[in-house]
Amino acid sequence: MTGVGLRGTSGKAGLLKNVQLFQGLSERQLQQIARLADEMDVPAGKVLARAGETGHEMFVIVEGQASVTTSQRRTLQLGAGDFFGEMSLLDGGPRSATVEAATPMRLLVIGQREFFSLLAEAPLISKGIMRTLSQRLRKADAAFSTCT
């Protein structure tokens, strides 16, 4: 895994700028998010979220690939700039899928308390999360429709 030099807040903010969820935010807002997020490197094969368990954080993929397996046994891939784990934080329900590192990964992790602070501070992020959830629901609905 290549080192990106994320150790400082400005390095994290620079990466967040490339994440669709955070596009359109000011530099100040990106810096705030960077302060809230922890950086984490994980090896391939590590389970990051398990379907049915309660989630306490969301993840933003900086580098690497993750495999997502839904309860319907569908698998999809996530890569740099994608995020996951937000649904469980929003509704307090169990994780809807299992996510495993397919390659070594570098992640930014935002805990539950920081997540809600972030939503209150930057309404554009709430819109981005709602847009992504809606897109995911539409894809799941379309996939379900083709199976019946």
From TrEMBL:
SUPFAM superfamilies: cAMP-binding domain-like. InterPro entries: CNG_cation_channel, cNMP-bd_CS, cNMP-bd_dom, cNMP-bd_dom_sf, RmlC-like_jellyroll. It comes from the Bacteria. It is a multi-pass membrane protein. Keywords: Ion channel, Ion transport, Ligand-gated ion channel, Membrane, Transmembrane, Transmembrane helix, Transport. The keyword Repeat does not apply. Residues 21-136 form the Cyclic nucleotide-binding domain. It is found in: Membrane. One of its GO terms (molecular function) is intracellularly cyclic nucleotide-activated monoatomic cation channel activity. One of its GO terms (cellular component) is membrane. PANTHER family: CYCLIC NUCLEOTIDE-GATED CATION CHANNEL SUBUNIT A. This is Cyclic nucleotide-binding domain-containing protein.
